[in-house]
Amino acid sequence: MKRPSILVLGAGYGGLTTVVNLQKEFGTDAADITLINKNEYHYESTWLHEAAAGTLLPEQVRYDIKDVIDTGKVNFVQATVEGIDVDSKKVSTDNGEFTYDYLVIGLGFEGETFGIEGLDTYALSIANVKAARYIREHIEFQFATWSTEEVKNDSRLTIVVGGAGFTGIEFLGELANRVPELCKEFDVPREKVRVICVEAAPMVLPGFDPELVDYAVGHLQAKGIEFSIGTPVVEATPEGVKIKKNDDEFEFIHAGTVVWAAGVRGNRLIEETSIESMRARVKVEKDMRAPGYSDVFIVGDCALMINEETNRPYPPTAQIAMQQGERIAKNIKALAGEGTTEEFVPDLKGTVCSLGDEDAIGVVFGKKVTGKRASFMKKMIDNRALYMIGGAGLVLKKGKFNVL
Ligand code: FAD
Ligand code: NAD
Predict the structure, then answer these.
(1) What pairs with residue 62 in β-bridges?
(2) Count of H helices and E strands in the chain?
(3) 3-state SS, residue 4
(4) Cα distance between residue 51 and residue 183, in whole Å
(5) Does the residue 274 lie in any domain?
(6) Which residues constitute the domain of residue 321?
(7) Considering its fold, how many domains does the chain have in total?
(8) CATH number of the domain that residue 206 is part of
(9) Last residue of a domain, which of 348, 365, 382?
């Protein structure tokens, strides 16, 4: 067997799981495995809403990649990918050019603004750990400024969250707990602060179980979160957002902070390759390869897969990204040994949406869960993801144990 050269781009859930499993599949010196990532650390994208609200420190959300890979088997390169040429099999980065026999693209998601005016410039997106830290500091700055300015601008204390999908709702859950802390810290009366969620669809968490949605909305409203439902954001300006109330009625919400959580797309670099994509997501073959490129695999949020039962795409989730990573490692091993690849079949265990640190809603193995029990499950899911990549040591270092 020729010693294959395998290049993995991105150390998110998908890329890192691929690498950890490649390590298991190939013995020492059996393959040249290179992992390229922008930072020397991995961050838990599924915890970014906590870092953005300020309920978790950014350092708690990330860990060093070298702590979880076998550096005897994997060459880790900290670099930013700048271009992917799948025809000449070359990847250019700010730290040199790389070639490969097999390529795995796992460069993750970006916030989708659907071309809505002003959002790219004036709204903040929970897109990565640096962006999350920026949101936290921006909100703190608004509170600090309000408490020291002579002529009070109350709209500084209004936070608009665009989108009531899982990201929006989880972020609101954290904010609901964080706002009272901020009020105390910066001497701000709680009644001055408004947190408003604006959702385009006629319901919160469109498509999710209505009983669980009612539970979530009731919980958040009881903590002072306001909802504006069926009212899409149509523009953002430095002063706030314009929302559409009906065909000829608009309202402007003045806000010091606008966080855009209304959907994701794949990494823009995908659109610059000759691989066909939709919103930077590649409709992959059943074995996770890019159509027309037998040596290129796509993992995680850059991949698009249709659920044949519903005829709709599977949602881009960490749960699926990690399962894909395992399958891709096996498929590369098979190809390197001149075997054949196998189809990736997702094994969906359910969805749990946190509502702050002590509450949650979810459907797990077909059963509905709410409250502390759901919150406990969410933390166990978070800990399991750590375990799958870094074993018990990583769980002890970064895990969530405040479960009662
Ligand atoms: P990512 O995790 O985004 O990783 C991409 C990696 O690529 C990063 O390390 C990044 O630094 C790197 N990278 C990007 N560009 C470059 C470049 N040019 N050069 C080098 N490196 C680069 N899913 C769930 O299943 N359960 C949840 O509870 C859940 N909660 C979520 C909460 C929030 C707030 C958000 C935003 C998402 C949540 N998701 C959840 C979705 C989940 O986070 C994504 O589906 C998952 O992160 C996708 O994994 P990935 O490996 O494709 O990309
Ligand atoms: P999403 O696409 O799931 O939700 C976006 C929401 O924004 C939708 O409700 C949509 O109607 C709304 N929206 C779109 N345009 C709008 C506009 N102009 N004005 C107001 N609202 C608008 O996106 P997400 O919540 O960012 O989630 C991204 C992915 O990550 C999904 O696959 C999700 O399942 C996953 N995720 C999972 C969890 C979890 O399992 N706990 C948590 C967070 C995210």
Answers:
(1) 43
(2) 8, 27
(3) coil
(4) 18
(5) yes
(6) 5-38+79-111+264-348
(7) 2
(8) 3.50.50.100
(9) 348
Q: Give, as one character, the DSSP assignment of residue 62.
A: E
Contact 174, 185 (CB under 8 A): no
The encoded tokens of residue 359 equal: 């509450």
Distance CA 336, CA 31 (A): 9
Going from the Cα of 47 to the center of ligand 2, the distance in angstroms, rounded, reads 15
- Smallest CA-to-CA distance from 14 within 105, 99, 136 is with 105
User: In whole angstroms, what is the distance from residue 100 CA to residue 13 CA?
Assistant: 21
Q: Do 248 and 377 reside in the same domain of the chain?
A: yes
Residue in 110, 167, 258, 279 to alter for ligand 2 test, most ligand atoms within 8 A of Cβ: 167
**pTM exceeding the 0.90 threshold for the entire prediction:** yes
Contacts of 188 (CB under 8 A, 6+ apart): 143, 146, 147, 157, 182
159, 259 contact by CB (below 8 A)? yes
The residue from 170, 174, 199, 326 that is catalytic is 170
Residues 207 and 316 in one domain: no
Ligand 2, atom nearest to 319 Cα = 40
Please say if 170 is a catalytic residue.
yes
CA 218 to CA 286: how far, in whole Å?
A: 41
Distance CA 259, CA 49 (A): 11
The answer to whether residues 395 and 295 belong to one domain is: no
Residue by residue, pLDDT tens for the chain (404 residues) are 679 999 999 999 999 999 999 999 999 889 999 999 999 999 999 999 999 999 999 999 999 999 999 999 999 999 999 999 999 999 999 999 999 999 999 999 999 999 999 999 999 999 999 999 999 999 999 999 999 999 999 999 999 999 999 999 999 999 999 999 999 999 999 999 999 999 999 999 999 999 999 999 999 999 999 999 999 999 999 999 999 999 999 999 999 999 999 999 999 999 999 999 999 999 999 999 999 999 999 999 999 999 999 999 999 999 999 999 999 999 999 999 989 999 999 999 999 999 999 999 999 999 999 999 999 999 999 999 999 999 999 999 999 987 65
Other C-beta atoms closer than 10 Å to the C-beta of 239 total 14
Within a domain: 33: yes
Which residue type, as a one-letter code, is found at position 88? S
Instruction: Measure 251 CA to ligand 1 centroid, in angstroms.
Output: 33
Residue 205 CA to ligand 2 center (angstroms) comes to: 8
